[in-house]
Each structure stands twice: as C-alpha cells, then as structure tokens.
C-alpha cells in the first residue's frame, strides 16, 4: 500500500495533509522516507510519525446500544444516523450497520466494514437468530406461540419463516414477550404482532446470533467487540 494512503486511512489526516507530513520525513522500519508513493506492508512494517507508531487495522467491529430516533444508515440529510454517533477515529474505518433497526427501535446494532461477515449475518439462507424484547398494547395468548412458530401471513401475503414467541406477561391492556426471528423484512416484528391483533409499543433487539447486547452500554454508547465475541460470531 502507498505510504500516503496507509497513513490517511488510519489517522485523521487528509491525503493532502499526509503528503506534507511525508515530505518532512516519516520513519518506516527506522528508515527515513519522504516519498508518498513508497510501498509499505501494512501488516508488518512499522511506521512512526512524531514519535508515535501507527497500527493498521483492516476491519472494525462495533457493538452499539442504538437509541430511538436514530436511523440505521450511513448518512441522511434529515435524521441522525448510527454513524453520526461514532467519534471521528471510528468513522475513518467507514463502518456500516449490519441489517436495520426501525428508527424508534432500540438495542443491539452491529457496525463493521467487514462485508463478508455482514453478508453471512443478514443472509436469509444462514438462519441467524435475532432476538427482541417487545411490548404490545393488547393481549398475547398461548395460541399465538404456535401461530408464530408455524409462520404468520403478513398483510402483503408473505408468510414468515418459523419464529419463536416467549410470553413474559399478558393481559387485555398490555403484554410483554421475547420474539426470535431469522429474517429481516421491513418492520417485520411489528407486522407479525399486528397479524395477531396487537400493536407494538416498544421494541428492543437483544441479540444477533451469538452476539448479545452488553447491558452496561447506555443508549447511544458503543464499544469494540471482544476477541471472544468476534470468534463466536464468525462461527
């Protein structure tokens, strides 16, 4: 990789600023280099600027506790996105949200620039389970568990894949439950609940496959995945 591209990809410096820095001299493996097109091995070479060593990181994996009123997109002219929440250093990696959560839905959001992993997690063929906590303004009944398990027909005629409903509390005014699905259709959980005759009043994603939301993260906070979390997720 060109030295100027390497530096600009992992620092806040623009390509133009990077070239100015390199002209003054940058240490590559203890050798002073002043050519922007100098080729470096990003995995093994040691690059030092102003006495500080740079470390190349190809992929980034971020767990966020997404708040409501934030959209799952990389950019938007009107609304705040999950990318806007990230600090400048983390935005350098150009991460994107894996799948989507509705604007008013809270909970686990995975952001990465690893396209291969993202594809595996959202592909319907992989049957990756996404678990949600849901509150509705009506009564969830025992028979609804079987209906959800067998798949429900949405208003557009689509029949959902097998899912799991675990009722926590239920009465005629309000019910609480966990629901686990392997798909990611538009407003899917809300539409599934509506097919049962109830409306979602609160929705929070708890997990994606083996990745479970860190409850110590407050709404809007995020952290990098641990090595253990990443290894389990990739399996």
TrEMBL record:
Q: What is its EC number?
A: 5.4.99.-
Q: What class of enzyme is it?
A: isomerase
SUPFAM superfamilies (alphabetical): Alpha-L RNA-binding motif, Pseudouridine synthase
Annotated Pfam families: PseudoU_synth_2, S4
Tell me the keywords, alphabetical order: Isomerase, RNA-binding
PROSITE patterns (alphabetical): PSI_RSU, S4
Q: Does the keyword RNA-binding apply?
A: yes
Instruction: List each coiled-coil range.
Output: none
CDD domains documented for this protein: PseudoU_synth_RsuA, S4
Q: Which residues form the RNA-binding S4 domain?
A: 1-60
Enumerate the Gene3D superfamilies for this protein: Alpha-L RNA-binding motif, Pseudouridine synthase I, catalytic domain, N-terminal subdomain, RNA-binding S4 domain
The entry assigns this protein to a family as follows:
Belongs to the pseudouridine synthase RsuA family.
Q: Which PANTHER family match?
A: PSEUDOURIDINE SYNTHASE (PTHR47683:SF4), PSEUDOURIDINE SYNTHASE FAMILY PROTEIN-RELATED (PTHR47683)
- This chain belongs to which protein, by name? Pseudouridine synthase
Q: What is this organism's lineage?
A: Bacteria, Bacillati, Bacillota, Bacilli, Bacillales
């Amino acid at each position: 990789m060109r030295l100027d591209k390497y530096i600009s990809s992992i620092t806040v410096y623009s390509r133009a600023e990077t070239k100015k820095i390199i002209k003054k001299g940058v240490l590559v493996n203890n050798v002073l280099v002043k050519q922007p097109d100098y080729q470096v091995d990003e995995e093994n070479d040691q690059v030092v600027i102003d006495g500080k060593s740079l470390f190349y990181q190809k992929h980034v994996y971020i767990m966020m506790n997404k708040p409501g009123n934030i959209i799952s997109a990389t950019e938007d002219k009107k609304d705040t996105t999950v990318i806007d929440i990230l600090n400048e250093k983390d935005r350098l990696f150009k991460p994107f949200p894996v799948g989507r959560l509705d604007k008013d839905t809270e909970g686990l959001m995975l952001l990465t620039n690893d396209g291969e992993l993202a594809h595996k997690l959202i592909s319907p063929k992989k049957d990756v389970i996404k678990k949600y906590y849901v509150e509705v303004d009506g009564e969830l009944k025992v028979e609804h568990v079987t209906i959800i398990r067998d798949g429900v027909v949405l208003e557009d005629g689509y029949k959902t894949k097998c899912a799991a409903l675990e009722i926590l509390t239920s009465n005629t005014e309000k019910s609480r439950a966990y629901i686990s699905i392997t798909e990611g259709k538009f407003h899917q959980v809300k539409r599934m609940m509506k097919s049962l005759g109830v409306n979602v009043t609160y929705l929070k994603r708890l997990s994606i496959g083996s990745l479970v939301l860190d409850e110590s993260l407050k709404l809007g906070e995020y952290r990098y995945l641990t090595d253990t979390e990443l290894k389990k997720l990739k399996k």
